[in-house]
Amino acid sequence: MTHYLKEPLLLEKRGVTISNRIMKSAMSEGMASRDHAPTDELIRLYERWSEGGAGLIVTGNVMVTKDALGEPGNVVLEDARHLDQFRRWASAGKRCGNEFWMQINHPGKQVVRGLVKEGHAPSAIPFPPKFQRFFAPSRALTTAGIHDLIHRFKMTASLAKEAGFTGVQLHAAHGYLISQFLSPRHNRRTDEWGGSIENRSRFLKEICRAVRAEVGESFPIGVKINSADFMKAGFTEEESKYVIKSLEELGVDHVEISGGTYEKAVMTGKKGPASEREAYFLEYAEGLKKRTTIPIAVTGGFRTSEGMREALASGATDMIGLARPLAVDPYIPHKLLEGELKDITTRSVRTGIPAVDKGGMMEIMWYSQQLDRLGRGKQTKPRFSPKLSLLLSLWKQGMGVFQKRRV
């Protein structure tokens, strides 16, 4: 029943073996210090996830510059000032022999108002009015600015390797900067960085080339990318498949499939196209596997060991990505691998107050509090009242708790 989950996965080009088919996908922890370094609580959290048994663990957002923060509490790695703390984080996150990759990112125009003054984007296209209160205004990047950010991604990847992380994942999904370049909805440029999908994917491809040149041939590079944005005039499934095929040709080692953006939050549990199968993006992944041999992970929606086994056995995906369930029980991977767990039940987190529950913000607060408990060495509270969770958040953070974040 569980042998598919236990099979190792070889990343052939790097000679790296992931010990099993379970991947802890990225969640935004919001647990950095005031100067954006990993805290003791963040380090302890990842030590527990390493003990939990996933073959591959991916960090939450690590930003390439402190001038662009996507959420409160983002970690930033732009120079060697806090490298000892990053070394401690890397050591904790891989202590049980798993792969531990740093997700590196730039939010583009998804920068929280009040944290930064101005965002940078492919084009100066504002968000719809209902989102503008969350995000700072943005301006279009110059060509020099684009090349500077490619350099920043390269340097963050190099520092991650120096700190002891075993790989990196480039975040090209969920409406962050790379995703913005890919989408014709956000990228209206008329130079070599815009227009056709070949040009819109140039930014991601140049980052991949720069990172590979910097980290060498033995260090894995993964990419998290949308199957689609699920928005009118957005990034499409056909474009996504084209980009992933290009990434394979560039020697990218692993692709994680997700979907949606803050404007269309498919990645938080709202499905795109209707499906009778557990995982949100499995049909897309199945079609993708006919075009590419690159190892694929699908994250979102898996809730039974049978559904995971079937997805792996069918060849639709090579890895099972899990996120929010591991915020409540970090040992779920071990339990799945040993056949001790058949179903992963996650509760609906609702206060009954429409203005609070709308858009999934209440769930984000609730799961963030579970991560905080794990980081402080405590047990999670799976039955913690959403209303008490809201009161606790307001007491600690005031109305700032409603700033846009994701888990």
Automatic annotation (TrEMBL):
Signal sequence annotation: none
InterPro entries from the UniProt entry: Aldolase_TIM (IPR013785), NADH_flavin_oxidoreductase (IPR051799), OxRdtase_FMN_N (IPR001155)
Superkingdom assignment: Bacteria
Keywords: Flavoprotein, Oxidoreductase
Recorded GO MF terms: FMN binding; oxidoreductase activity
ATP-binding in keyword set: no
Residue intervals of the NADH:flavin oxidoreductase/NADH oxidase N-terminal domain: 13-339
PANTHER family in alphabetical order: BINDING OXIDOREDUCTASE, PUTATIVE (AFU_ORTHOLOGUE AFUA_2G08260)-RELATED
Protein name: 2,4-dienoyl-CoA reductase
UniProt source species: Salimicrobium flavidum
